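Translate sequence into structure tokens.
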Amino acid sequence: MKNQNTPLTVISFESRMALPMQRLLEKKGIHCISAPTMKEVPLEENPRLFEFYEKLKNGEFDGIIFMTGVATRTLIKTLEQKFSKDEILETLRNKSKIIVRGPKPTAVCNRNNLPIFLTAPEPNTWREIISVLENHDFIKSKKLAIVEYGISNTDFINQLQKKGAETHPLQVYQWAMPDDLEPLNTAIATILTGKADLLAFTSAKQIENIMTLVKEKNLEGAFRRALYSTAITSIGPVTSEHLSTHQFFPDLEAKPHKMEALVELMAKKGLSASRQKKKKAVLNLVYVKDSQQITETKDIMEDSPFMRACRIKANSQIPVWLMRQAGRYMAEYQSVRKKGGFKDLCTNPDLATEVTITAVERLGLDAAIIFSDILLVCEAMGMRLTYEENHGPILGPPIRTMDDLKRLRPSHTATDMPFVAKAISQTRKHLHPCIPLIGFSGAPFTVAAYMIEGGASKNFIATKQMMHSEPSVWKKLMNLLVPALADLLNTQIAAGCQVVQIFDSWVGQLNSQDYETFVMPYTQKLVRKIKKGTPVIHFGSFNASSLHLQQKAGGDVLSIDWRVDIKQALQIIPKRKGIQGNLDPTLLFNKPKAFLPEVKKLLQAVGKRPGYIFNLGHGILPGTPVDHVMALVDYVHEWKM
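Result follows.
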């Protein structure tokens, strides 16, 4: 591992500005391996471009969207083969409104005195273009020409079309492989042998050419394994987003999104990012040497810190994952959320996979939890389920009587929710091979409470009325839920989950006697139906006086509420059970210097007890600063057992 006196080795994939990039890095004392990945090739034999220009002259486009500076310059230069520059610029000024994605096309337009109608704000992705067009009511029924960069952005085009635009994409240049492949081959060999500390990506297309080359050489598997321990830097969100489509997630992203800022970022944070990435790879027992993966002879998944804790084995490191680790507090989640509503994220396997993996990779966590929702099973059983902004889930009509139960049907996950298994198998395929994947369901009580109340509730009056006044209805509802939830959990296990968690989020609304009489027997039944040998984490909003009931209800690891004193929990819960928790999630709104002492107290109380998993005592709250979450994860990982 590098020390402070050993220069970092950075591989730069910049092409057009390769030499300036190398000089900037070397001025910072960084060893740069320059490996240009592409060359720009104008589409000079481009009849579509001249067809576009004729339509432009005829006033057939409401707007032209320039995606890059290179595309804007190339458009004008190519058209100059047949038309004068003055005529081209006059046509652009008068025949359509100009929309630009960022500062580079803006600069080209300004140099040519082209009036700009709209500019996408930072971070200058296609999503900001959509937003600014919507704000100016300039999408629906509009004919929009999109002057693209070397690769077509189908997500952007699809969203424009979905919102009512008529789109006319136009490519004016392409990215080809560089004429001299030797520097790129040398860079790939350096990465495969573990000698690169940082990779610097400055364009979305770079990873495309790199992946094409490693696939041609049958080195894709080795290359992906090598990147487990190599830090990735990105010039900005467009490049980061494209990297993520290949399941590579940047450790550092420049802001502002310029080459100089990227170099400054690597100089300041590159060493720590590289150390963290290499440390994580070692902890997960993955090593790359001479293009080969070397693993321990034992099952590396089972020997991961998280799985050892679930099996109540001693650990050299405290594993950490966080409830709602993929959530609204993350910009990456918000970006994906724009592709559809919350329900779309849960039921679209591609989107669920993306947000699941992004969270664990971004934060450096020890386990992933599949992105889903505990109430989807209610829809599979015949209820209507919607999610309303600022109101949460709405279920209807509520289940209150024996006749209402007739509207419910048995749920079979494979046929009623096929997206569940598909999302898990896709996630497992792309997830780091040493990172366990958690599946989950709601506990029978919590799911039943939603079905009875029709959504969230403060007092759960209807639920408690059913338990006490209509016990036969309650019993039948619970007996319908248990097999449905067991099938859901076992389907997740079969699809690729190593661990499952049962969420009893509302159980804190009950007194101990009601829990023991009306709830615990059904939770026990559910736990018994889960595939033998699969660790079960049982989360509930129990107070300290009812922890013995949580233990009795079942589960290998008990996840405890933030309101429970960890010292009391350690005394009550027997050592044959694991413990997960239980930091107050609101503490993360404070700066790390304020909340880390609380983390320290918690870890000191746990000591060396086997079977401990660090988590919050509830989910991460919207608005939590991501850098605070990362500081928390780093602190727990650096804690000496």
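Note: Confidence is low (pLDDT under 50) at residues 285-298.
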